[in-house]
Amino acid sequence: MSLSPLIDKLIESLQVLPGVGPKSAQRMAFYLIERNNDGAKRLSSVLDEAVERIGHCNKCRTLTEHERCSICSNPGRDETMLCIVETPSDVMLVNKVTGYKGLFFVLMGHLSPLDGIGPEELGLELLAQRLDSGVVKELILATNPTVEGEATAHYISEMARKRHIRATRLAHGVPLGGELEYVDGGTLSQAFSDRRDL
Question: Number of H helices and number of E strands within the chain?
Answer without folding.
Answer: 7, 6
